[in-house]
Amino acid sequence: MKSLVLNLFLLFIGCLSCAAQSHEGEIEKLKLVLNDKAHFDTQKQKRIDQLKAALDRDPELDLNAKYLIYLKLYNEYKSFKYDKAFYYAHQLQKVSNQLKDPAKIAYAKLKLGFILLSSGMFKETFDSLSTLRIKHLPDSVKREYYFLTARTYYDLADFDKDDYYTRIYNTKASLYVDSAIRLCDIHAFDYTYYSGLKLIKAGDLNNAILKLKSLISSNKLSEHQYAIATSTLSDIYIQNNNPGIAISLLVEASIADIKSSTKEAAAMLNLAQLLNKRSNIQDAYLFIREAMDDAVYYGARQRKVQVSAILPVIASARILHEQEQKRMLFFYSSLLTLLSITIIVFAVIIYKQLKKIKASDKLIVRSNAELRLTIEKLNEAEKIKEEYIGYYLNVISDHMNKLEKIKFSIEQRLTTKKFDEIKILVGNINLKKEREELFSNFDKAFLKLFPNFVTEFNALFPAEHQVKLLQHQLLNTDLRIFALIRLGVNDTDKVARILEYSLSTIYNYRTRIKNKSNNPDGFEAAIMAIRAV
């Protein structure tokens, strides 16, 4: 039975760590690059600042030079920050209109269309593209127009997810891709990438994989191009229900996005979703938060909506995962109480798991401290009871012996009718001495329990009001009053009867002594705080 439970427990721990171990090396690599994210963003910002400085240094730049700088700024911002890219797309339009160059005017409109599409504004993108008359434009402009139009239809098909309209949009997109690749160099990135994308949309996934793999293996790709290719290839493996390879590709795509400071990307969002499905909740939550930060920084509404739809799901899964871990740990900790030999091994495992999930609970620590204090007080009270029960049994025993002797003597003299001797015998009983002996025994028993009582009592008073005992004295009346209070006899009437004083006398004693102390209001509480040995 013990062996079975141990095996079940180890299986449970293995299951908990399985998802974390899957792709562990790749994910750790991504996390290391994430740590340098600010560095890559700073490098991009330096390039942007240099371009802006070039504009500021020479306000009289000719329009063609301005156009080139605006184009470079647009390219830096297009996947980095939406509102800035949108601004420089308009600046391109403004300068191209001033130049009255049809190719530059068309090119500027294409750049604006790309930004509108990136933000999910399909109607505005089509409106912008519809104003272009490309018949007499250079092939480079025509090619970009066809590719952008194709991508717009592809994205619209993905967005609608309607069987009827998706087929129409994909068909239109494929025609535009055909027109574009006819104008492409067969070795160009766009030629291979869009050929592969067309195969994906047509359902020919095997050939699409070959196309994209050949593209990825190329050494001529920029970080941004590499991210686009690997992210697109991962979609095929997700469709083929092969999330393992998809995760590896998305990790590579995410790393490339970080290095190129690309904020408008879906790789990390898709990676978070796959890790969440594979129960790697912690990493999924980390990456979905990064995806949200990028979406917010970029500023495009569509991307923020996409991430916002997934973030609560992963956050909820994270909470449920932690709760499930706590429930399972509680179950196995209960089993530990039934096992004698394996208790130490299980205790170590549970301790390590609990340490990762939750820090020590302050309330329990405080409750334990209060419990210990209560136990100490109970132990002290028990000790006081034991000492004083013994003390009073001895006192009562002594008095019983004395009474027995007196009774015997009186009975003898009554028998012989020696009444004068009885009178003498009664007269020899010294009540004052008996009372003093009673108090002396009380003092000895009390000081045995509270040997530091007199010292701690005096510490509550200024020097001139401290108690000074005679050489033979153990306690005096002042001390006995508060010794009884320390023992729990707080009723003034009871104290008066024990010490054989009037009620008013004891009350006056208590009031006078408290008023002489350093802290009258807290005096009796301080008396109760004096500890027994």
From TrEMBL:
What residue range is the signal peptide? 1-19
PROSITE patterns for this protein: PROKAR_LIPOPROTEIN (PS51257)
The membrane spanning regions, by residue number, are: 329-351
Recorded superkingdom: Bacteria
InterPro entries recorded: DUF6377, TPR-like_helical_dom_sf
Question: Does this UniProt record's set of keywords contain DNA-binding?
Answer: yes
The family database entries (Pfam families) matched by this protein are listed as: DUF6377 (PF19904)
Annotated DUF6377 domain ranges read 257-496
Enumerate the GO terms in the molecular function aspect: DNA binding
Keywords assigned by UniProt, alphabetized: DNA-binding, Membrane, Signal, Transmembrane, Transmembrane helix
Protein's name in the database: DNA-binding CsgD family transcriptional regulator
